[in-house]
Amino acid sequence: MVQPSINNRHYTANQSNIIHLMVQQPTVLFGYWEVSKRLKSLIERHYRSSWHELRRVARLYQYSYSEPDTAPLTYYDADVGNSESWYFRHVAPRHRYALDYGFVNHNQQFVSLLRSALVGTPRNDPDWIVEVRDESSTIQECSQSDSQHQHYAQSNYSPFQQFSTYTLYSDN
């Protein structure tokens, strides 16, 4: 039996179905997905069509941020073709979103294969935007209640001086 590992992409592509939706900015989302060969084969047999002949769609649902457990406010379909990822630009800040990946069948109905978890976009409030213009780290805009952040940015001080992004792993 083949054991899955991080470096074994062949195993992952053949055995798992995954979808993730991530917030990149208040107005930009990024989604990616993988459909297993088994699921593709099942769809091909059921619909008697090649996987590549089907119109593949990523459907982005928009939900209210303040009213949980409600129906989607709207949705947007992106014809993604053979792509395994997609950027959704110009989404509304302070809303929740979910992503479905699927295809449009012969009756022009959307058939969902995968669904992401809900993600929420932050507010796009200029009072909270911090711009760093040069190496001196001067702040152009900052919330008045964020004086500690302003102190760190102006003095080039980091509260994480001993922090390193490098991690060593053994070859066991």
Describe what this molecule looks like in 3D.
This protein has 172 residues and is of the alpha+beta class. The chain folds into two domains: 112 residues, Immunoglobulin-like; 30 residues, no CATH class. The protein is 16% helix and 31% strand. The protein contains three helices and eight strands, in the order αββαββββββα. Strands 3, 4, 6, 7 and 8 form a five-stranded antiparallel beta sheet that branches. The chain has a three-stranded antiparallel beta sheet with strand order 1-2-5, with no helix packed on it. The protein is elongated and about 55 Å long.
User: What is the CATH homology-level superfamily of the largest domain?
Assistant: Immunoglobulins
Second CATH tier, the architecture of the largest domain? Sandwich
Mean pLDDT, to the nearest integer, reads 77
- Structural class assignment: alpha+beta
How much helical structure, as a percent, in the residues?
10-25%
Radius of gyration: 22 Å
CATH top level of the largest domain is: Mainly Beta
Uncertain segments are 1-6, 132-169
Protein name: DUF4912 domain-containing protein
InterPro entries: DUF4912
Organism: Paenibacillus agilis
